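User: Here's a chain of 413 residues. Predict its fold as tokens.
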Amino acid sequence: MPHSKKGPGLQPVSVWRLCVLTVCLCVHHPDEAAISPQDPILRIGSSLTATCTLSPEFGLHASMLFWTLNGMRLSSSAYTVMSSDVLSVTLHNLNGSKQQSGDNLVCHGADGHVLGGSCLYVGMPPEKPVNLTCWSRNTKDLRCRWSPGGVGETHIRTKYTLKYKLRWYGREKECENYSTGKQRYTCYIPRNLALFTPYEIWVEANNQLGSATSDITTLDILDVVTTDAPANVQVSRVGDLDDQLTVRWTSPSELKDILFQAKYQIRYRLEDSTEWKVAMDDVGNQTSCRLAGLRPGTVYFVQVRCNPVGIYGSRKAGIWSDWSHPTAASTPSNERLQSGSCDPKPGEQNSTLRRELKQFFGWVRKHAYGCSGMSIKLYDQWRVWLQKSHRTRNQVGKQNLSFHYLHTHIDTI
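Assistant: Prediction complete.
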């Protein structure tokens, strides 16, 4: 916003300072004095002596002036009155500019009105950009991200240019769609990419103090395919089983038009823990999984991510997607352990195990056909049936031991 200030015997002077969301842009003011040097570009840590030379027709004296930097008044100990119309200020060990548009060094009259100003650009020449990575959502596009090589170059305006070309032939091209804000240092190539031929990709950095180029990254589009995280992740109980949960999800939409297999990973953690445990790493188009061996009556958080493999026959895996948003579910409470219960004696325990195994095989004959029915899924179903029986509370505490006994003694029964 412009505003006016009026000195003795002077016409109103318009002062411009453009601010957007608390970021003030360095702009030049109508001068009643000449500031030198004008808009210097300096390295961090350097020193600067600037002068404010008054226009003689205004009748001001240099000893009445003062300086500000970004609105903060500078100490008079840094001033030198060089003549009646020239006042200098010396700044030592300059820090990086607080804004890429430049820092405002302004000369003021005694009443505070602006006589003239200069923009200071303080930073460092760029170092070679680092951490260049690229990925594709559909084998037809490419998005690349990198990091500045040094902190100093971020204080002044530095231009980054992503370039790419086919490795063995083709001309050099420049990416045109650069992101801003939180997604800075990212560029998007939406189309016209070749498959089955490697690309060379690099980033060039330039500012008014120098230039630098990143290392060259070589990649094939098919090797950097990724997806969004799996959607609609749902976690539910498995009947009355108190140590299991079922996880279901929807395949990422980006891969529906591509010949692929999906490699999924599932991880989970306890509600009061920050440590994740990976539970599944499998290849195939399955979109569900059962977690076993969980704690009864416990809340779990579950996440799923996807890695596309076998794109157009390629044997290499793609890039893991982000993890899905955590989904919570709890296992049923274990109410079977009764207070005051006693463990059976060894002989009684062995007899009980044999009786339960006979029950199990009797149940199998009714519900399974042939050896193919002997599976962990079938055993889970039997456990549910057993838990619902009238003898559950007295026997279920020994069920895990029963299953172990089944595997170790099945040939003797």
